[in-house]
Amino acid sequence: MSHCHNHSLNQVDPEIFSLIGKEEERQSNHLELIASENIASLAVREAMQSVLTDKYAEGYPGKRYYGGCKIADEVENLAIARLKKLYGSEHANVQPHSGSQANMAVYFSFVNPGDKVLAMDLSHGGHLTHGSRVNFSGKFYDIIPYGVDPKTEMIDYDLLESLANEHKPRMIVSGGSAYSRKIDFERIQSIAKRINAIHWCDMAHYSGLIAAKEYPNPVPFADVVTSTTHKSIRGPRGGMILCKEEFAKKIDKQIFPGIQGGPLMHVIAAKAVCFHEASQESFKSYQIQVKKNASALSKVLNDGGVRIVSGGTDSHLFLADMKSIGFTGHQAQELLDSVQMTTNKNTIPFDTEKPTITSGIRIGSPALTTRGMKEVEMEIIGNWMLSLFKDPESTDLKRRIIREINDLCEKFPLPSLLLS
Ligand code: DSN
After folding, report:
1. 177 close to ligand 1 (CB < 6 Angstrom)
2. 69, 207, 300, 409: which has the highest count of C-beta atoms within 10 A?
3. What is the Å distance from ligand 1's center to 177 Cα?
4. Residues with Cβ < 8 Å from 315, sequence gap 6 or more?
């Protein structure tokens, strides 16, 4: 064995050790409001750092291309069984390395280059892989965008239906990354069925809420459903696919050998842990609080004069129209960053600004809720934001807010710090 195999990270690579320590400190004393981020449990992290990282297990349980896969098979079967039960799905694939690869497998399974795909516009809340011109999805397929109604800023299902009838796409995509309202998956399914199109739902943002039955479940309606495993579901970074049994072989073949090689067995083990955690009663209470917190924070901002897109939220996130108080999304993100509040600039429906500037910011509650914060903390945070937006140049104000944020963060430590 090489001389440093039994040494700690600190001994072998002090530079990376120190950078990880700095990142832990940043996460610890910043308020994480990015809607797609969360804090995985120590159990999830422990599975990820296990010896399973060393095992090659190309193929699927019972049909591997390497020997020594008995335990890997048990791990993957457990992850699959837990995932199917969580969402009531006929089939599950836990191997996608990311949400984007899960989504790529869906395209490769159901549509050919040049085929028409109906998907939500990115600036109305869609996602990069739902047809953005800079992504493979927008390059290979003929994307027809649907969006929200300009008045309600909620999905315009009549428009979606008329576009479906007019263009007869091969696939309709539901789901998105910046849409805060409930989605009527049943209606989208009935539209898809009438034109013989595949209905694919990307539930990445909502999968934690859905597991806890706090958001509509697309699985009974959509032909295929994809998700990441690290957003509201709070697992390791990765992807997953659920589908009806009739599409199982097609999907599995596209993930391996179509797109990926060996699965990340340590991450699959961590996904299994996450699915176990998500089936607990405490996860339901967590998701209820996630929604309450998003609602509470949006209300404080709204009461303080910031326009909230669609007037509120039914989920873990909302979009704040920063132009309503004279900022671009970029300016607002930078301002909040300067006092240890992390958000992301985001286009809002019918935005006239470029994606690098934007008119809005996206705000989400999953990570702060994991730390144990509730409505009372959301009110404090919302008021810090409002005072900062009123007086963006004041260094005294910024100093005070940072001091108070440090105190708040100390009261709600990250899981690892809970141990020390
Ligand atoms: N980047 C993710 C998000 O922030 O929503 C989507 O993949």
Report:
1. yes
2. 207
3. 6
4. 180, 181, 182, 205, 206, 209, 215, 291, 294
